Amino acid sequence: MSRMTVERRKAPRQAEAERNDRALLEAARAVLATDGAHASVAAIAKRAGVGIGSLYRRYPTKEALFQRLLDLALDQYLAAAEAALADPDPWNGLAGYVTTVIEFAGSLSPLAGMLPLTEEIRAKDRRAGEAVAAVVARAHDAGVLRPDATRLDVELLIEQLGRSPLVEQLAKRGRGDLDAAAGSARARIIAIALDGLRAAGHPPLPGDPPGYELFAERWEPAS
Amino acid sequence: MSRMTVERRKAPRQAEAERNDRALLEAARAVLATDGAHASVAAIAKRAGVGIGSLYRRYPTKEALFQRLLDLALDQYLAAAEAALADPDPWNGLAGYVTTVIEFAGSLSPLAGMLPLTEEIRAKDRRAGEAVAAVVARAHDAGVLRPDATRLDVELLIEQLGRSPLVEQLAKRGRGDLDAAAGSARARIIAIALDGLRAAGHPPLPGDPPGYELFAERWEPAS
DNA sequence: CAATGAACGGAGTAAATCGATCCGTTTCGA
DNA sequence: TCGAAACGGATCGATTTACTCCGTTCATTG
Question: Which domains does chain B have, with CATH numbers?
Fold first, then answer.
């Protein structure tokens, strides 16, 4: 009992380490969104305002960093779905879920198939998937979501809207001045898609509903 | 006048060259769609079933190949818009235009900002843009397109739907067996978006209509 | 205040990739 | 049989990448 690990106040050096860790994860997401699968560790470190050495002290490998990012993102997925269920209005809940998840879904899709999936990640994915299913089911029962759109249709729509060539390319160049306009334009696209998702006597959707293989297979690290 | 260039039947070697040229352009589009801006000449040549040497005999540089691809694509844009205007039904015309253009729009967006734009390309872009404006205006006048959606909203929607993470990633791996399912899933997403575009008492779109800078700036080869 | 060690930043390294060239081979027509 | 034209791909220099190594900075401790 001699080791009094009293954490009265965090050592300033440790606090800096924590800030750096958060900055790295945020930077990884941002760079992944603009550079896609070719995001380089150098770009991530630079964006985080951190030396490459510090990145590798925290994560043994680039892959480990991305795995941690994916893990945390799945937590956000789940939280968003639970927040949607907490909304008393089934449609507002669904619409809020979609718009929330779109924000960070785009950063993740480039990772599909590049990472070994830990069992923890698979478990979190299953839990999040069930929560989303509940959100969609409630909207269906309330008659506010078009009946021929399945949960996977909704998830594919989210993934489709997650990446935005417009915003990404403008970000890759300097043009931060156009960010507001680009974001606004993107919001309009999302609004249009959501209007198409709402129950409103639309003609039936073509083809068969998508199967889950389309999701699952893509994330398996075949290579 | 001694050079009798009678083209009775094409020399078989020349015919092969023409086939190769078409194969190269098609391959360039496909590789650009799956690999994005990092599409390599080696990948394009391989996909076309052609040696790298043959590629460089026809195009002095990678850039020239992409410029030619862009040039031809603009012809297709224009043709699609004219076909839309030829359709007696304003909505079917617009919807057909959107679904047609989506097919190859995705291959082009990665080129934004990577190419010097020839004056010919700029001219073709202007002509195609006017044709699209006519298609949209006719749909507006007929009251079948939601009034708050502008021509640029429509074009941005096309660009957004042009790239499909699902289809691209499945293509990058072997999984050609899932192509049909992926294409069908994608068609449903497009149908949903089109339903959101149709006039049907939707709530008004948020923010201001997008301005043209969002398009123009992005294609300028700043670097 | 000197010494310790944890956290830092970034130059350096070996490997991989890319655009482009060069050249030996194949194919067709005269 | 010979020459020209089109072919495929090994090869090259330049660039990029993930990762290592090391000298520096800074709060704590005796």
Answer: 10-59 (1.10.10), 70-219 (1.10.357.10)
Mean pLDDT, chain A, rounded, equals 92
CB B198 under 7 Å to nucleic chain D: no
Name the nt closest to B12 by C-alpha to C1'. Answer: C28
Nearest residue on chain B to A179, judged by CA atoms? Answer: B214
CA of A2 to C1' of D22 (A): 35
Cβ neighbours of B207 in A, within 8 Å: 184-185, 187-188
B124-178 pLDDT tens trace: 999 999 999 999 999 999 999 999 999 999 999 999 999 999 999 998 887 888 9
**DSSP output for chain B:** -------SS--HHHHHHHHHHHHHHHHHHHHHHHHGGG--HHHHHHHHT--HHHHHHH-SSHHHHHHHHHHHHHHHHHHHHHHHHHSSSHHHHHHHHHHHHHHHHHHHGGGTTTSPPPHHHHHHHHHHHHHHHHHHHHHHHHT-B-TT--HHHHHHHHHHHH--HHHHHHHHSS-GGGHHHHHHHHHHHHHHHHHHHB-S-PPPPSSPPPPTHHHHHHHS---
